[in-house]
């Protein structure tokens, strides 16, 4: 049973036993369930002791990811958040400054980890759709005086989540990483949904991330694995990152069970991301025809829409949809509907009608 977490407590709330079943889950691509074929692959996985270095399936996943990203080495971690934390700890020292977009996950969705644990400060740049330009980045360069925090890392989210799943163009990425290199900064890509970007843009992952020192991919978003993310970089970077993985308790044991799910996702769930993007476009088209709804044309699988013009609040819409077994999320005053592995094309018109009714009620 899926449910929206309560804001009143830090502990996730269990859904009531009589909660209506969720039939159309547009809440997040994190809610995909492993398919029967993925579970089969997990069951068949050859395993060992990952932190001891002898789990063959984890090695296979890391080799495949390093090759896919065009980097020397890779590391399996339990979550994307841990990839960001480990990467920032590896690139930076306490008091260093990380430059990122003001809507980025590291600023808003990691529980204050960078104040609590990594000790970096984050400068949030403005810009439409979660992106900024080379001029914006140049304007953020600080003088090297003893007063200014030392700037150390450029962090880019591909796709930009709160930016509406927007895809940073390759030319912009290359310009930005070029500036970072000039400044002597490291570069890190939060690639939670990187393959949504590469599939949408028709660009190979290695080409898209060529300018970045480190990059990670989440297997628990549209790729549909139950857990796991892989961080990639130079051999030297990954070697240094292992110290932080171990310190944070991110070293696993028979991790191959989960790595097998990720390998299965690489083999079977990448090309199909295009279907999620087509579903998202259809959804956006349908929503755009509802009076009072303002929707942005999606680049990938995230559809953000504004319902202020309808007079219905995001919470009321969520509650009304929940009664029909449909789940959407609220993010920054807007509604987010996310397409993924468990959302079929047939569900799109049904979701549009339900949203139309819920907004008219
Ligand atoms: C989901 C997400 C993360 C964190 O990944 P988890 O696996 O949930 O820890 C980081 N960045 C972005 C952009 C995300 O969407």
TrEMBL record:
Domain Aromatic amino acid beta-eliminating lyase/threonine aldolase: 26-308
Cofactor(s) the record lists: pyridoxal 5'-phosphate
SUPFAM superfamilies noted in UniProt: PLP-dependent transferases (SSF53383)
Pfam families: Beta_elim_lyase (PF01212)
UniProt keyword Nucleus present: no
Keywords carried by this UniProt record: Pyridoxal phosphate
Region feature (Disordered): 1-23
Coiled-coil boundaries: none
The organism's place on the tree of life at top rank: Bacteria
PANTHER family: L-THREONINE ALDOLASE (PTHR48097:SF9), L-THREONINE ALDOLASE-RELATED (PTHR48097)
Family listed: Belongs to the threonine aldolase family.
Assembly: Homotetramer.
Descriptive protein name: Threonine aldolase family protein
Organism for this UniProt entry: Sabulicella glaciei
